[in-house]
Design a protein that fits this description.
- 10% of the residues lie in helices and 43% in strands.
- The chain is mainly beta.
- Strand 7 and strand 8 form a beta hairpin.
- The termini are far apart.
Length: 124
Amino acid sequence: MKFAPAEVPASLRLVRAAGPDDWLPVDTLREVRLTHEVVEPYQGDRKPSVSTLALELVLRGGRERLAPLPFGGDPQRLADALEALLGPAGVVVQLRTERSTRDRPQPNSGWTSGGSASAGSGSG
């Protein structure tokens, strides 16, 4: 999101990979919902935890949800900053953190890989 003017925003727009959206008045924004998802490693897993942040905007005319993106910052600090910026305009900022543990890989089944079997390929 981008705000203008930055200190006391009167308008905002989403900035996406394809380019920025049109400017919207801040008073069209009702709520900002941040969902911080953390996937922790299982015991013995050497991969680090993975953190993503999803953003949902509740607008006067609908909702806009952005796909979760990798996030390495402090989600509470971001929520506090958005609340300080948008709270005076009556915008509610919510932060929800969801934690889960990565699934262990399933052990191999009875099938083996690497072999080849074809009907009618036997010599005889």
